[in-house]
Structure prediction request, 1339 residues.
Amino acid sequence: MLLIDCPHCGARDETEFACGGEAHIARPLAENTISDAEFAEYLFWRDNPKGVFLERWCHTAGCRRWFNAARDTVTHEFIEIYAMGSLPKSKAAKDAYASAWRRQTASEKAAKPAQKTSGKGAKS
Amino acid sequence: MNIKSPKQGQMRLSDGGRINRKNPVSFRFDGKTFAGFEGDTLASALLANGVHLVGRSFKYHRPRGILTAGYDEPNALVEIGQGNQQAPNIRATEAMLYDGLTAKSQNRWPTLGFDIGAVNSLLGRFFPAGFYYKTFMFPAVFWKNIYEPIIRKAAGLGRAAKDHHDADRYEKTHRHTDVLIVGGGVSGLMAALSAAGSGARVMLVDDANELGGWMLSENNTTIDGKPALNWIKQTVKALEAMSNVTILTRTQCFGYMDHNFLTLAEKVTDHLPQRPDHLPRQRMWKIRAKHVVLAQGNHERPLIFGGNDKPGVMMAGAVRSYINCYAVLPGRRAVIYTNNDDAYKTALLLDDVGVKVAAIVDQRPTPSSVLVSQAMARGMVVHTGHAVLDANGTRHVGTLKIAAINPKTGDVTGQPFYIDADLVAMSGGFTPVVNLHSQARGKITWDDEQVCFRPSDYHEAAICVGACNGVFDLKGAMTDAAVGGAMAAMAAGFTAEAVMTPAVDEPSMVMRPHVLWKMPSDAVKGQEPKAFVDFQNDVTASDIKLAVREGYHSVEHVKRYTTNGMATDQGKLSNINALGILSDQLGKPIPEVGTTTFRYPYTPTTFGAIAGRDIKELFDTERLTRMDAWHRQHGAEFEHVGQWMRAWYYPIDGETMEEAVNREVKKTRTHAGILDASTLGKIDFRGKDAGEFLDRLYTNMFSTLKIGRCRYGLMLKDDGMVMDDGVTTRLGENHYHMTTTTGGAANVLSWMEEWLQTEWPELDVYLTSVTEEWSVTTVSGPNARKILEALGCSVSLTDDAFPFMSYQDANLAGLPVRIFRISFTGELSFEINIKARHGLALWQHLMKAGEPFGLTPYGTEAMHVLRAEKGFIIVGQETDGSVNPHDLGMSWIVSKKKSDFIGKRALERKSMALNNRKQLVGIKTEDPKAIIPEGAHAVLDPHQSYPMEMLGQVTSSYYSPVLGHSVAMALLKGGHAMKGQTVWFPMINGKKPIKAVITDTVFYDPKGDRING
Amino acid sequence: MVSSAVLPGRSALSQVAAIQHPVPKGSAGKITIKEAPFHDLINLRCQPDNKMANALIKKLTSHSLPSANQAAQAGDRAVIWLGPDEWLIMAEAGAANTIMANIETANLGHVATTEVSNAYGILTVNGKPSRQMLAKHCAIDLDAGVFTSGTAVQTIMGHAGIILIATDENSFTVIGRSSFMPYLVALLTDASIEYGVEYRPA
Prediction:
C-alpha cells in the first residue's frame, strides 16, 4: 500500500486517497471549434506511460484537497508532489510534462492559455 | 544420559532442553493419547514418542515425517482442533503444544498407516510432471462432470472445518515504527541493540515461541566467554527493559509491500489450551516502517537422493534443535549425509547424547576442519567422496545404499554398500532467506563462493543482515547486524552507533557446500528412485529433468509445469536445488537460469487474521436516519440504498409486500402519505460565484433563480451523459442548497470539489455537506396542506403565498423548519427539513396531526411506484452512464444560451443526436396485470430466430394500483418515434412473451393538475 | 435562519443503549466511551491568510485558527483544523447562531459558515489502552510521542470517516457523521473487549 504525502495533512495510507488520473489535461472550451476527433483527445484519451507519470490525487478521507503528483509507475516512487495549478519542478517530472504526447494535441491548443498550466485543463 | 520413564515419550532425554518439565501435558494424535511438556511443539512431542510418520504426501501419498524444526517444514502438516476450531495445514513444527491439543494427520484414507491413495506411488510413472495438463484434456464435455470432480477431490491437503462458523476471534491492528527487525536470532538481537540505542522506535518480531533463533539449537558456541544462551537471555532482557522496543514472538512477517508496508501474523492464543474470549486467536499487524532490517537467517537445503522423503530423514540442523531445545532424540542410529562442515556439529551432538553415528557420508573428497577431525577422533566412520544413492524402508528409513562417487561429476565410481539407520541427518548447504527481500522487489545476486543467492540491491528502505545477507559465520553475522541496525536507525533519522560485537567462540567451519546438481545414482537411466526436490508438491528431480526434455527451459515455465516452489511452501527448501538441477540440465550457470518470484504470503496465513473484525455486523456500516427507531417500531421492512437503511414498506396485519405498497400508493393519492427522505444528499453552496458555478454544473440556469425559489437540475459528466439530478434552491444572494440522489451524494460532492479545485479555482465557492444536518420528511397528497395547517404552521401554505417550487423558513408545531414545496409524487407536497435532532419529534407530530386526514407512512417501494406513474426518472435506474438528456426526452432542460456547462461540447457530437439512440419511453402492457420484469428486452417480433434483434430494455416497472394497470419505462432504440407501436418482451423459462404498446412516460395526471392539491 | 434553537432534541446516539464488557485479568486498563451530545458545531471556510477573520475567530472562541493537524481546545470553545481553508468550531449548545451571525455580518470577504451541529456525533474515549484500541481500526500513527495532545486529524476508523483528536495522553475525541455513530460505537466497544469497556449513552 502506497504512502502518500498529502501536502496539507502529511503522509497517509493510500486508502485515504482517490487517484484522479492524468494531470495537466487542458479542457477545450465549448465555443472552440475543434473536431469531434480532436475533442476526444481531451475527453477519452489518457496516457499510460511506463515511468514518470503526472497525475492528480485527492485526499478524500482527509482534507478533501486535490494535488498533483509525479509518480514512477514502475517503482511507485513519488518523485514530486506539487500544488494544483502549478507545474512540477524536478527534472524528471518536467521532462515527463514536456514529452507527453498531449502537449501536441489540438484539444490542448484550443484550450485557454491559462488552462494549459493550471486547472483540470488545469486538471493540473 | 538416560531416557525418561515410558509415560513420557521414550525418546525424551532425562534432562536438558527448553521445555517446562514441571508442566507435563497430554495430547491426541490420530486418536491416540500421548504425553509431552509445555514448551514442546507438536513435532517435538511426537518425536519424543517415537512418532515420525505424520502425514501423506500430496500427489503420491507417500509416508512423510518431520523434516525440519521450524516454519520451513514442508511435510508435517496436520489438522489441529475440533469442530468449529479445526484448522488444517498447520505445521507440526510450529504448533506449540498445550494440554488437550487434538491433531490429525492429513491426506490419507482410511488411516495414516494404510492409505489407499498410496497406490498413486506405484503408478508413479503415470503421474509425471504436467500430469494434469496431459491427462485432463479431451473431450471437453468431460470437464465439468468427470475431470473437475476428480481434480477437486485430489487437490489440497487438509480439510476446512465443516462448521463454517469460526468460533475464534481475530483482530487486526496498525503500528508505525522507525525500525522493524524481522527475525529474532542473534543477528536480529544485535541489530535491535544498535537501533534501539539511538532512541528509535524498534519492533523486533520472530515467528518462534522465544527469541534466539538458531542459536537456541547450538550447544558448542560461546559469546563473551559464556554459553551463547546466556548472552541471548541478557540481551533479550535488556531489550525488554527499553520503552522504545516492542518485541513480538510467535509472529511471522508474511508480506512486504510498497513503501515499507509489512504484514505480520501474530499467534496470540494458538498455544493456549483455553483461548480466552477477550483475546483474538491471531492478530494481523499492519506495519509502516521507516526502515526494515531483515534478519531471517537461512534455510538449510536438503540433499537429493532416492527416498530422501522417508520418515526418519531430517535436516541436520533440525536434529540439533530437537536435541538441544526439546531434549528429544530423533533416532537411535544415525547416518550423517552432508556436503559441508555444519552437519558435523550434529554428528558430535548425537554422539554426546548417546546416539550411535553409524557413518558420516560426505560428498566432499577431502574435507578438513576441526569438526571433521573431532568426529574422526571420536571414532566415527567418515566416508568422504561418497553419496547416499537410496534410502530404503516402508514407513521409516531403514537401510541406506551408499557408494563412492566422482566428486566432480557425481558419477558412481565404487561398489555400493549398505548401512542400517533409523535417522538420516542431511545438509545440502544454506540459503539466505531472501524471500521477503525479493517480495519487496529487492534484487538478489548469485554468490558462487557460498553457492547461494544473497541480497544485492534494495528497492525499499531496508537492509538484510547476518545469514540473511549471506554472512554465515557468527562473528561476521553479529557485526553485520550491529552495523545494519545502526544504519537502519540512521536512515530513519536517528543518530546511531553500531554496538560492539562481543567475543565469539564457535567451531571453525567450512560452510561452503560441495554441490552436485546431478544426483548420484547407479540405477538404469529412467528408473532412478524417487528423489524429492519439493517435498510439499511431490516434485522429484526426474520431474524437472522431464520438463526440460519436453521443452520447458524458462524457470517460470518449469515452476508451473512441475509445480516446484508453488503452494504454501513457496520453495523455501527446494528453490536452489531445483535451480541447480535445471542449470545442470540446461548447461547454463544458475544466474543465467534466473529465479522465480517469491509470492505473498511468505508463510500461510489464516483468512481469519486477514479478515479481522471485518465480519458480520462490522463488515460494513449501516447508516441510520433519525427516524429509524420509529420505522422499526412500526414494522417496516428495510432496503439498503448505498450504505443507508431505508424503510421499504410498512406491512400491517399480515399484508404481503404487494398489498402494503398498493395501500400506501393509493392512500397517498387519495389522502396523504409521509416519507422519510432524510437520506437525500444535501450540499450547502456559499460564495459570490455560487450561481455561476451552478450554471456550469447543471445544463440549465441557476444564477437567475430568484431567492426563495427551487429549480430541478440535470447534471452531466463532460461526456454529455447524465450523472445526477436534484432540486436546488436559492436561499440567499450567495447561498444555494442542492439536493442530490441518496446514492450519489458523496460522489457528487467530490465531483464538484474536483471541478472547483482543479478547473475553476478562480471561483469563490465553498461547498459543505449538510446531508445529516437535516432530517427530511415529505408530506404528499391532497390533504398535505391541511395536515401542516392542523399542526400549526407559521406561514401561509396557499398556492399564492407558497407557490410550487418555492421554499420558506417557518415554524411547524413550534419547531423551526425549512419547507420546500417540491414534489416527487405529482401530488401537492411539502418537503420539510428540520434540524436532525428534532427529526423524530416532527415526524411524530405529523403522524398525530395527520391521523384525521388519513396520513399513511410510505416506503421507498411506494415512492418508486408514485414517481413511475408520473414518469419521473431515477438517475442510475433510467440512466446508466450512456444516456444523455435528449435520450430522456429532456432536451428542454439543456440551455442553448449558456456558453459552457459540463457536457455541453460533448452533447454537440453528432452521435449524441442520432435518432437510433436508446430513448426513454413509457410501456403499457396489453394485459393490465402483467408486470414486465425490469431489465427485460424489447423485440418487435417475438417469433424471430435467435439471436433476436433487441430494441432495448425496461428500466422501471411497477403495478399502479391507482390506474389499475402496470406502468413501465424503457430505453428503446429510436423509441421517441415509435409511440403507439406494439413491442414484445420475450420471457425465459417457457413463459409467454408479454405484449405491450409504446406510450408517453407520464401515466398519471398528465396535465399536472394535482400538484396544487 | 433555522437553527437548533429548540433544545435539546435527540442526540445522534439516542438509539444506542449502554454497552459493557467486563475487565478481564491482565487488562491494560478499562476503556470508557461516552457520547458528548449537543455541542454546537460550525463548519468554517476561509482563506488561512484572512487576518480579519482570524482576529474575529479569536475574539469569538479565544483561539486563533489552528494550523494543520491541530485542534485549539482549551476552554468552552474549540477550533479544529480540517483542511487548508476549513475548520470546525465547537461551542456550547445554542451558541452557533450568534457565532455565525457575527462572522456572516462582519464583511470578511470569501468566508462562509455552515451549521453542522446535527450532522456529527461526538464520542469521548478514555482509558490507558486507548491508543492501542484505536490503532486496531485506524492507520494513523497514534504513538503518544507523535499524536500528542491537541493533534487532530481527519482519517478513517474502520469503514467510517472520522475526526480524531487527542485530548491528553489517554483520552480522545472521536467525531463522526451522525448516521455512522451507531457503527462507530459498535466498532470501538468491540475493539475494547480485550481491555474491558463501558459505553455510556448521554
About this structure: Residues 51-61 of chain C form the longest helix (11 residues). Helices of chain C lie at 51-61, 96-104, 130-134, 181-191. DSSP finds four helices and twelve strands in chain C. Chain C touches chain A at residues 68-69, 82-84, 86, 139-140, 153-156, 161 (CB under 8 Å).
